Amino acid sequence: MKRIENNEALKILLRGGPKFIIDADSLNYLIKEEEPLECYEDSECIIFINMTKDTDYVTVVPMSNALHTETLVDLINEKCTNPSVLIDIQNLSEEHSADLDCALGAFLKYQQTLEDYIYLSESEQSPEYICDNIQILEPADKELFEAITAKPEKDRPPLHILFDIFVTKKQGYILGAFDNEKIIGYLSFTQILPDVFDLDYIYVEPEKRKLRIGKNLAEAYKKYARDNNHIAYWSNAKNAASKNTALSCGFHLIRQAKKYIKV
Fold first, then answer.
1. DSSP class of residue 99?
2. What is the percent of the chain with per-residue pLDDT over 90, rounded to a whole number?
3. Are 197 and 221 in contact (CB under 8 A)?
4. Could you give the CA distance from residue 88 to residue 241 in angstroms, rounded to a whole number?
5. What is the pairing mode between strands 231-234 and 196-204?
6. From CA 252, how far away is CA 70, in angstroms rounded?
7. DSSP state of 182
8. Residue 10's CB: how many other CB atoms inside 10 A?
9. Structure-model confidence comparison of residues 127 and 97, the more confident one
10. Could you give the count of Cα atoms lying within 13 Å of 116 in the half-sphere of its Cβ?
11. Which of 5, 147, 203, 240 has its CA 20 to 30 A from that of 246?
C-alpha cells in the first residue's frame, strides 16, 4: 500500500466511471475544503482517510472483486486512533466480503449498510409519462412550498431554509407535485459532479401516498437528468419505500457500502 497525491486518487476514481461517483464526490469535497487527508493505493483499491479531531474517517474503494484485507487492517491500525470505516462491498466476491467482515469485526463494530442506485441516460428504460402537475420550483413558489405539512425530521433543514438554499440561492433543484394550488409532494436534488445529479430527499403528503406521486416525482427527476445529459444518482436510500421507488423507475443498485465503527 503506497501513499499517493490526493488529486491522483481523485483522477483514478473519476476514470473508474459511474460506480465510483459518490466516492469521487466525497474525495473531491475533502480536497476542496482542504480537510486533513491522506490517500493510498494498491493493485486492488483506493483508500482515503479524513483525520478529524475526534474520528478518522476511512473510505475504502475496491477496484476489483478482491481486497488485501490484512494490508487494509494494518493501515487502519497504523493511521487511526478512532476509525470509522466505509467500504463498498458491491463488487467484492463472497469470499473476500466474508474475510473483510471477519477481519474488521475483530476490532470494529458493524453499524449499517448504505445503498445507492443509479440511472444512466443511455439506459434501455425511458422515463414513463410524466404528469404535467410536476415541475421545477421557482422563487415564486416559496409560500406554496413552505405550506407543505411535513413534520420536521432529524437532520433535515426546515422547509424555508431548504427552499432558500436550493431555489433562491440556486444551489440545487426541487421538483414539486401540484394539486391545484397546493404542493403535495417534492423531490430535491443537487449537482455533485459536472454531469451527475444526486437525490437529496423525496416526500409525499401522507394522505396522498399510494397514488404513484412518489414514482412520478422520481420519473420526473430521471427525465430532467436525461434532458440535461446528466446521470441521475439516488444515494443512501434510507428505507424500503425509497428503494422500491428507485427500482420501479429503472434505477439500478450500484453501491453497497458497509460502515464499521470503533467498538
1. H
2. 79
3. yes
4. 22
5. parallel
6. 31
7. E
8. 20
9. 97
10. 23
11. 147
**For the residues 4-26, what does the mean pLDDT come to?**
94
Cell triple for 233:
444518482
Residue 155: exposed, middle, or buried by beta-carbon count in 10 A (0-12, 13-18, 19+)?
exposed
Cell output for 3: 501513499
Indicate the helix (H) or strand (E) that contains 72. Answer: helix 69-79
The amino acid sitting at 141 is D
- The arithmetic mean of pLDDT across residues 193-202, rounded, is 94
**What backbone torsions phi and psi does residue 48 show, to the nearest 5 degrees?**
-130, 140
Q: What sign does the dihedral 64-68-73-76 (CA atoms) show?
A: negative
Residues 6 or more apart whose Cβ sits within 8 Å of residue 109: 260, 261, 262, 263
Whether 126 has a pLDDT exceeding 60, the answer reads no
Q: What is each CA distance from 74 to 97, 163, 213, in whole angstroms?
A: 17, 45, 49
- Provide the CA 45 distance to its chain's centre, in angstroms: 20
Write down the residue that cell numbers 431555489 correspond to: 167
